[in-house]
Amino acid sequence: MSFNAPLIHLQALSKNYQLEQEYFKALSNIELKIFSNEYIAITGPSGSDMVN
């Protein structure tokens, strides 16, 4: 791994949900790169969070 390579790299991420007969697109073709010494927070609908 080179010095500038991300620790985590997601690409072409998509997520769909189905509720009865309907489909909902939550994510479409997302790319995420997280490098060393970066901080991220993931929050949920309640406002609670998980900090890394």
Structure in a nutshell:
The chain is 0% helix and 60% strand.
Order of helices and strands: EEEE
Please state the overall shape, judged from the principal axes of the Cα atoms: elongated
Content of β-strand: over 45%
* Overall tally of domains: 1
The biggest beta sheet, please? 2 strands, antiparallel
The tally of helices reads 0
Strand order, biggest sheet? 1-2
**What is the CA-atom radius of gyration, in angstroms?**
15 Å
Name the structural class: mainly beta
Ranges where pLDDT stays below 50 over 5 or more residues in a row are none
- Count of DSSP E strands? 4
Question: Fraction of residues in helices?
Answer: under 10%
What distance separates the N and C termini? 22 Å
Mean pLDDT: 84
Supply database-style keywords.
two-stranded antiparallel ribbon; 52 residues; mainly beta; 4 strands; two-stranded antiparallel sheet
Describe the protein:
- Strands 1-2 form a two-stranded antiparallel sheet.
- The chain is mainly beta and 52 residues long.
- 0% of the residues lie in helices and 60% in strands.
- The chain starts with 7 loop residues before the first strand and ends with a strand.
- The chain has strands spanning 8-19, 22-34, 41-43, 49-51.
